[in-house]
């Protein structure tokens, strides 16, 4: 239930109706838009919302659901109902086109059973009578005209007419040529007059050809004559045309009689098409305002997240502006929002947005808000917005407001949403404030939900001291003296009356005089609100800075943990390799000792032989001993050239050498083997590619470059891998190949659809070190293998 009668117009719902009408295909759909009401039954609202949401999904997914043309077939069913009546060719064709749309839609949903359950409810138990189409197709062609063979008699008449017209044409051509040869004919050719074919004859020669004059030119110099020879033939044709018309009427009458038993089904199809047009219009409108399906709750509450006023959105869209989103909630504990703030700060828009979106949702329309938005169900929506003074009723503005307040108090319940703009205005503030406070207290005691806007300080104070009420304010940038249009729940807002007056240039002495007249308490309260707003902005900015710092620390900790893991992994790997090598040496030594002892026993401890065996044992042990040769120190030549991505650099802290992956201002991401690290630009020096190759040969790289060179195979098999994983492997192997100075790299990617090959080659071409890329020989894999030659 809405109150007053112009509630829709005041909130802006009437304009939503007008926009919906533009998306309808038929007058029936427009009629449904006109009848659309704000509902209060949860199941009905849920059904209509889901239908709109599903149709929106179909449109956005470009599903092949064709709904282009249909007609008001209910009007035609009323004509069919009358015995002896018949439908015209055009009317039959309208039914045919409409039924084609119906059956096309039914086929669409049959092929997608249970995918769109809410829309399927539209045609639940709807009978499918394909016989109607077959009856129409036997009589009407695809252009909506009666088929020449719709009956045997019609076919015979049509054949006779064709022969008669041919005979008339033949005779007329003969007479016309004769008249032309005798110069009887005026300029022009054979023409039709009153449905009869005539020859344009000069009036001087009209008596030289027997016939009937049907017309003459404006000047009287030309007459249009039907020759006597074809007069009887034309009469016969006219009779045949009458026979044809009578036969068509009989055919249409028989067809109408065939359709009469299906009258109820045709009415059902009409209803289905009407609902479909209505839901389609709602879905198209939802797309135009970027609306989505809210979470529906069966209780009087709402929680708007990033909600936008739809009419404001469409208006701003034309001006390339954006709407500031609204976040607000009303529930059992926070029942009434008391919104304050400066003039033109967005208080009324905030309240109207809440009211309009609630009415839209309860009418089955999707709303422009985030998907987490919750919309409840209210039994009644009352609004006191704007000036309703009436000369006829002898009501002033304030009297009209009081009349509404009286109605609100008498009829509002805990399931009522009340919207009051500029609460208490229209009379002396000394009395208007207390009356407004009394009304607010009464509404709050009745557990009413609502949003009110006000400038009255006593209402702000009352809201702050009473449960169920909550102050809210529209934020204002007091440094720029501009409203921010952001709702801040939890504190009242200043009207910024003096600040705005000063900003627009009102004289300072007038402002100071006004401050003196306002009173000390009021001035200090308003000043306190302004100061509170400043402090809140500072706290908010401090929170943002703290959050940024926390994120930075979190990222650093994560990076540190990753490095720690990498070092632990390498440590375990090195220990494992060392243990395996030690075990191998011990095993070989044990075998040698055992073998020596065995031979000594076998030779019965002969001194010379024993000495020789001992010398042999010592030589073998000396040969298997791990010798550490002094490493040649490779001198790294540094230069101060500009560092670019792909260059090799030396870390000044530990002389490690790596390749620059990316550059970000003064920071570089450097690859040290499989390890990635971030360093400052001034903590590295650039080295040449020749130096990198020397380092590789001289074992100057940390992490065992000799082992890396020994184990590295310049062949990479990427078959069966996804593109991202394959490119990561290519990057890793290419870095190693360049680092170790390999001249070429063989990449096996397979043929397939050629997508992986194309992506890999495009990626490789970004490297300046890649000289060229070639296919393998056709006999050994062809374009399924790429050879990469490095500079």
Automatic annotation (TrEMBL):
Domain Smr: 716-791
Annotated PANTHER family: OS10G0509000 PROTEIN (PTHR48466:SF2), OS10G0509000 PROTEIN-RELATED (PTHR48466)
EC number: 3.1.-.-, 3.6.4.-
Lineage, broadest ranks: Bacteria, Pseudomonadati, Bacteroidota, Sphingobacteriia, Sphingobacteriales
Full protein name: Endonuclease MutS2
Gene3D superfamilies on file: 3.30.1370.110, P-loop containing nucleotide triphosphate hydrolases
UniProt KW keywords: ATP-binding, Coiled coil, DNA-binding, Endonuclease, Hydrolase, Nuclease, Nucleotide-binding, RNA-binding, rRNA-binding
HAMAP family for the chain: MutS2
Organism of derivation: Pedobacter flavus
GO molecular function annotations of the record: endonuclease activity
Subunit structure: Homodimer. Binds to stalled ribosomes, contacting rRNA.
Gene: mutS2
Domain of life: Bacteria
Coiled coil region boundaries: 525-606
Described purpose of this protein according to its UniProt entry: Acts as a ribosome collision sensor, splitting the ribosome into its 2 subunits. Detects stalled/collided 70S ribosomes which it binds and splits by an ATP-hydrolysis driven conformational change. Acts upstream of the ribosome quality control system (RQC), a ribosome-associated complex that mediates the extraction of incompletely synthesized nascent chains from stalled ribosomes and their subsequent degradation. Probably generates substrates for RQC. Endonuclease that is involved in the suppression of homologous recombination and thus may have a key role in the control of bacterial genetic diversity.
Signal peptide segment: none
Keyword 4Fe-4S (UniProt): no
Family membership noted in the UniProt record: Belongs to the DNA mismatch repair MutS family. MutS2 subfamily.
PROSITE patterns in the record: SMR (PS50828)
Binding-site list for ATP: 341-348
């Amino acid at each position: 239930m809405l109150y007053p009668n112009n509630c829709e117009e005041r909130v802006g719902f009437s304009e939503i109706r007008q926009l919906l009408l533009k998306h309808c295909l038929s007058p029936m759909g427009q009629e449904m838009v006109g009848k659309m009401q704000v509902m209060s039954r949860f199941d009905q609202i849920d059904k209509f919302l889901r239908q709109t949401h599903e149709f929106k999904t179909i449109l956005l997914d470009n599903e092949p659901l064709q709904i282009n043309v249909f007609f008001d077939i209910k009007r035609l069913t009323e004509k069919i109902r009358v015995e002896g009546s018949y439908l015209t060719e055009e009317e039959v064709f309208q039914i045919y086109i409409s039924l084609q749309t119906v059956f096309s839609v039914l086929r669409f949903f049959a092929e997608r059973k249970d995918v769109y359950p809410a829309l399927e409810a539209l045609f639940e138990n709807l009978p499918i009578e394909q016989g109607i189409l077959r009856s129409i197709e036997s009589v009407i062609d695809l252009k909506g005209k009666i088929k020449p063979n719709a009956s045997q008699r019609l076919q015979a008449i049509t054949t006779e007419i064709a022969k008669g017209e041919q005979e008339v044409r033949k005779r007329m051509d003969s007479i016309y040529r004769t008249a032309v040869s005798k110069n009887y004919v005026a300029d022009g050719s054979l023409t039709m007059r009153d449905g009869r074919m005539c020859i344009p004859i000069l009036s001087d020669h009209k008596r030289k050809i027997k016939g009937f004059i049907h017309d003459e030119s404006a000047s009287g110099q030309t007459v249009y004559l039907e020759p006597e020879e074809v007069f009887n033939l034309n009469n016969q044709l006219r009779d045949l045309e009458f026979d044809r018309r009578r036969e068509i009427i009989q055919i249409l009458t028989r067809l109408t009689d065939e359709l009469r038993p299906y009258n109820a089904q045709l009415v059902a199809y009409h209803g289905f098409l009407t609902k479909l047009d209505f839901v389609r219009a709602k879905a198209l409108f939802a797309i135009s305002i970027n609306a989505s399906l809210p979470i529906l709750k069966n209780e009087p509450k709402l929680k708007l997240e990033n909600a936008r006023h739809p009419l404001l959105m469409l208006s701003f869209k034309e001006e390339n502006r954006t709407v500031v989103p609204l976040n607000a909630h009303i529930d059992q504990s926070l029942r009434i929002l008391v919104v304050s703030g400066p003039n033109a700060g967005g208080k009324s828009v905030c309240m109207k947005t809440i009211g309009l979106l609630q009415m839209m949702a309860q009418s089955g329309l999707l709303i422009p808000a985030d998907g987490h938005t919750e919309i409840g169900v209210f039994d009644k929506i009352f609004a006191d917005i704007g000036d309703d003074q009436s000369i006829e009723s002898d009501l002033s503005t304030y009297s009209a407001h009081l009349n509404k307040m009286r109605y609100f108090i008498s009829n509002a319940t805990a399931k009522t949403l009340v919207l009051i703009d500029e609460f208490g205005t229209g009379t002396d503030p000394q009395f208007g404030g207390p009356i407004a406070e009394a009304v607010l207290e009464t509404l709050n005691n009745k557990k009413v939900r609502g949003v009110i806007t006000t400038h009255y300080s006593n209402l702000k104070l009352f809201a702050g001291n009473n449960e169920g009420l909550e102050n809210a304010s529209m934020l204002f940038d007091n440094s720029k003296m501009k409203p921010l249009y952001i709702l801040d729940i939890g504190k009242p807002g200043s009207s910024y009356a003096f600040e705005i007056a000063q900003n627009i240039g009102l004289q300072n002495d007038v402002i100071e005089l006004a401050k003196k007249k306002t009173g000390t308490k009021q001035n200090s309260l308003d000043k306190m609100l302004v100061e509170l707003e400043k402090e809140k902005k500072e706290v908010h900015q401090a929170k943002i800075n703290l959050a940024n710092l926390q994120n930075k620390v979190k990222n650093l900790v994560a990076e540190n943990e990753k490095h720690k893991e990498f070092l632990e992994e390498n440590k375990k790997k090195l220990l494992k390799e060392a243990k395996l090598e030690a075990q191998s040496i011990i095993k070989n030594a044990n075998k040698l000792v055992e073998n020596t002892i065995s031979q000594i026993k076998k030779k019965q401890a002969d001194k010379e032989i024993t000495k020789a065996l001992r010398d042999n044992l010592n030589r073998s042990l000396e040969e298997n001993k791990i010798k550490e040769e002094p490493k040649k120190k490779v001198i790294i030549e540094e230069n101060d050239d500009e560092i670019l991505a792909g260059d090799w650099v030396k870390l000044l802290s530990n002389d490690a050498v790596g390749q620059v992956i990316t550059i970000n201002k003064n920071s570089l991401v450097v690859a040290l083997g499989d390890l990635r690290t971030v360093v400052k630009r001034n903590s590295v020096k650039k080295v040449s590619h020749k130096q990198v190759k020397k380092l590789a040969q001289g074992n100057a790289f940390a992490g065992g470059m000799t082992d890396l060179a020994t184990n590295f195979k310049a062949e990479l098999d990427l078959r069966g891998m996804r593109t991202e994983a394959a490119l990561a492997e290519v990057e890793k192997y290419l870095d190693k190949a360049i680092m170790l100075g390999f001249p070429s790299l063989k990449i096996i990617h397979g043929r397939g659809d050629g997508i992986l090959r194309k992506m890999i080659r495009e990626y490789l071409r970004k490297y300046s070190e890649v000289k060229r890329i070639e296919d393998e020989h056709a006999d050994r894999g062809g374009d399924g293998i790429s050879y990469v030659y490095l500079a």
